[in-house]
Amino acid sequence: MSLDDYGGGQGPQPDVLVVTTNDVPGYRVQQVLGEVFGLTVRSRHLGSQIGAGLKSMIGGELKGLTKTLVQTRNQAMERLVEQARARGANGVLMFRFDVTEAADVGTEVCAYGTAVVLARE
């Protein structure tokens, strides 16, 4: 089952649709395959920690840390999609992120959800 026509947008459409909702309008859940997740742990870079410390004193966005967190979340999501695809899913419902500190040396980011097979209604 391809989701090529989902959303009607331009450009390539995902072969695994990831949503934060319980369902997808116009589709029914044909099969629930179970939980899938993508996990990554990033260590802190000493230079970015010093820069973040200085920036926090004067205020403003911590752009280096923001960029790192975006990259980390994207990597966790890519791993989630790979796991869903490997299980034969074409959708992930109830997608969420969980972020925790990992023993004061880095940040753990976990993307998780429920892998499903979606079919057009």
TrEMBL record:
Residues forming coiled coils: none
Transmembrane segments: none
Gene3D superfamilies: Hypothetical protein apc22750. Chain B
InterPro entries according to UniProt: UPF0145_dom_sf, UPF0145_YbjQ-like
Entry-linked HAMAP family: UPF0145
Record-stated family: Belongs to the UPF0145 family.
Descriptive protein name: UPF0145 protein AB0470_04085
Lineage: Bacteria, Bacillati, Actinomycetota, Actinomycetes, Kitasatosporales
